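User: I'm putting together a teaching handout on how sequence relates to shape, and I'd like one worked example. Could you take Pyrroline-5-carboxylate reductase from Moraxella nonliquefaciens, show the sequence you're using, and then write out its predicted structure as tokens right after it?

Assistant: Happy to. First the sequence, then the structure tokens directly below it.
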Amino acid sequence: MTDFHVLHNKTVAFIGGGNMAGAMIDGLLTAKRCHHLALSIGVSDKNADKRDRFASQGVLTATPDTAHQLMTQADMVVLAVKPQVLMEVAPSLAPHLADKLVLSVLAGVPCATLQRVLGCGRVVRAMPNLPSALGAGATGLYADQGVSSLDKDMCEMVMTSCGVAVWVDDETKLHAVTAVAGSAPAYFFYVLEHMIAQAMTMGLTADDAHRLAVQSMVGAGLLAKDANPQALRMSVMSKGGTTAQAISSLERDDVGGAFGRAMMACYDRSVELGELFDDK
């Protein structure tokens, strides 16, 4: 079974120091401490305040003009710029990526496009989500042809450092990952908004409603981690009880169908955005 020691004596360079890169770097720093890894981490970003913050954590830093110094030494380059600036930065990155393992967190940008504009042959795409910032992320991974088992192990451990990572065997399945994980935190926040608002109309204070609703969702998630959600739901319900009444109301309103349609809308939009970068 793969463990974090696959990153021992490795160098990981991040191009872009935004929120997702910061979450991944925090995860790697934690793994480095906990597993006693000789792991070197670098990041290139144009923002001086971000560079100072990373440097205070022991991370090597560079400006975009000196990013090549990080990439030259790296075993893995994590591409974490905004997708819309890819074409702008590609000419300065490409000369240094031909022999590098590239892990991309650029939403919607296919492997073929990355290979074409960056001249790299070993590409892994990652689709992480917002809870990665707390080490509780859910990430889908896809490896293109030319990526070795060791490359995959390294990418998996980078993403595991900030949550759970699963592999898909077809790049198009990353659209499904977006629907079930990438965008999913917003679904839960939406449900929480309405639960809290309704609890307040029933007389609870905003603070009490928020604490109770959030903790209920956290607790339910923990229970569901290693159990069947349907079986858990049935264990809470008793015939003619309060929960049964609530579920009956949800079923009459086709809430399950609404979630399915919402996820499909997310999937379809992910496909549309991906086509903007398609090499056709």
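A couple of points you could highlight for students: The two ends are 39 Å apart (CA to CA). The CA atoms of residues 11 and 73 lie 7 Å apart.
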